[in-house]
From TrEMBL:
The record marks 32-33 as: Contributes to redox potential value. It holds the Pfam family Thioredoxin. Disulfide bonds join 31-34. Residues 1-106 form the Thioredoxin domain. The keyword Cell membrane does not apply. One of its GO terms (molecular function) is protein-disulfide reductase activity. Keywords: Disulfide bond, Electron transport, Redox-active center, Transport. This is Thioredoxin. The keyword Disulfide bond applies.
Length: 106
């Protein structure tokens, strides 16, 4: 399962109302660290299959959701489970670290 682009309009439907845990990546095209973790998140989305969803929110195109979540720097990652934030972290990290964080949170 590939990453899912999410917008201000689809955030509630794709993230808060999801029946599986969702990793949300707040990112931007111009953000170097965001581009660093992008491939790892894509791989993790595929490796977890239908167990989790990995959603990507472009903060430049969807500022309302980023503001509502209190995102001040990117990449900002949140894990939602049953519509609620259960964990969050900021900054780039290696794939193994991201995977460990996801496993500990879901």
């Amino acid at each position: 399962m590939a990453t899912v682009p999410v917008t201000d309009a689809t955030f509630d439907e794709e993230v808060k109302n999801s029946d599986v845990p969702v990793v949300v990546d707040f990112w931007a095209e111009w953000c170097g660290p965001c581009k660093q973790i992008g491939p790892a998140l894509e791989e993790l989305a595929n490796e977890y299959g239908g167990k989790i969803k990995v959603a990507k929110v472009d903060v430049d195109q969807n500022p309302n959701t980023a503001a509502a979540m209190g995102v001040r720097g990117i990449p900002a990652l949140f894990i939602f489970k049953d519509g609620q934030v259960v964990s969050n972290r900021a900054g780039a990290a290696p794939k193994a670290s991201l995977q460990s964080w996801i496993d500990d949170s879901i």
